[in-house]
Fold these 4 entries.
Entry 1:
Amino acid sequence: MNTRQEIINKINRIDDPELLREIDKWIGSILDASITDELSKEEIAAVHEGYEQYRTRDVVSWEKANELFNAWLKEK
């Protein structure tokens, strides 16, 4: 089985409509943008790191993310 078919099979097993919408947005954004032309290697690595954190559920709440972001903005 090739990678494309493996991805399709995994998506076909998902019953969560919200997760499917998020996957659709993510795939759409990848298809709409030429990431390698616009992002540096470091930026691409950061995106991969963030995706891996999302995949392993190593995430913070929306409220906590806003707090961290606002604190970061104050430092700038």
Entry 2:
Amino acid sequence: MKTSGGIGTSRVEAFSDGVLAIIITLLVLEIKIPELHDPTSLEEALRALFHLMPRFIGFLLSFAFVAVFWINHHRFFTLVPRVDWALLWLNNLLLLFLCFIPFPTGFIGENPRNPIALILFAFAFMSAGIVFNCMWRYAHRNGLVSEQVPDELIHKAIRRGLIGPVLYFLGGMMSFVLPVLSWILYGVVPILYGMPQRFVSKED
């Protein structure tokens, strides 16, 4: 659907939804089924599952973050009814960083205390958060946000969007000192952004 000052968002949303669905599917593929020397051994099976715990936790963190990202991405395009070429490419840049997520997720699952693995994990999510924040700023600055959306709501979304990147940056830095704190900070972000926010639809 054409709109003044840009083009409709339906194809952008459909493409983004498809990419995010694939990303979430790829996350679980990083958890490999353990090979047991004795297929009937209860002790060996439990020990193998215990060793997979970092992978399960990494999967849950990444799944939660991508799911929350999908919710906020959907919310963004409910409040932004049109796009231009620059916003299209910002959205593609966002998808680029999100597509990278399965790699650091598998990396920290295999090396849960390694600073490089934890920093790489933080980099992927921090970069995605920064780009998403840039999308908000660009849409607001270029008049792509629905006229029914108050400026206060936009400024709140922009400010709130900086919290995640800051926490991921701190988590990455803490990986050299206390890796467990990095994991805790990473877990706070999807909880924070998963909280319901004030919502305004295109039809309001």
Entry 3:
Amino acid sequence: MARENAIEVEGIVVEVLPNRTCYVELPNGHRVRAFLTGKARLNFGQLAAGKTVVLEMSPYDWSVGRILVQNE
């Protein structure tokens, strides 16, 4: 995923899966699979359903995203 073309979107965690992946629902109603990367796994607390997160998504694949920020 090229970072200069990345799109940042806010969403709500709907379901938490193993390996720090989860399903996030976007404001337009779409559900995407999202994951925490490398250092983000160390810095973030527990990922739970109902939390608001900011995703980074590729303009080419809208089905997968990376979690950048976890809001309380």
Entry 4:
Amino acid sequence: MFFVALTSIFAALLYNLLIKNISAASGEHKRVHPIILFAIPFISLYNLYFVFGFSEYFVFSTTATLILISIFLTDALFTHIPNTIVLPAIGAIFAFQIFRGTDISDILIAALLLSGFFLLQYIISSGRWIGTGDIWLGVLIGLMLGLRGTIVTLFLAYIGGALFAATLLIFKKKDHSSKIPFGTFLTAAAYISLLFGQSLSTAYLHLIAIR
């Protein structure tokens, strides 16, 4: 618990600095209350600790979660996924996966398929549907979760995004041309996959009759 609290405090300070720097660079003055910046990683990491204990996977999933939260915040606040976060994260997660002895072919296939799926949408829509940041985020999530976890993440993200968009349209908070930061749904879905990935992927693959 002490590790979770200390890590959350440190993460909150870094997130606050990140938001300030992007605000200064973009001219969009955004702010998140420090308590919220602490609560998000604390609750997220506590859930991981509760499920996995202090294990190798807990350390890996903690690293992945802190990265996902930073992307979630920047996309939610600025509708932008900075390459300065995603590209170093790709290298760090790939190195971590090698250290863990993960099946490299599985995570590379997942990264290629998810980023390729987003790249295809980017090309077809000329960048209207999805941004380049989402393509790199696809690489990162694929490397984090492997093929099964990535499939579940994509499914959850699109369901969540569709429900959110429909709710906004119903209450007339957005129109059909409004841009919704899809990276927020991807990162939230990826966290759920980190937490419950094995059981969710088994249930999902059974649902669509893949053995």
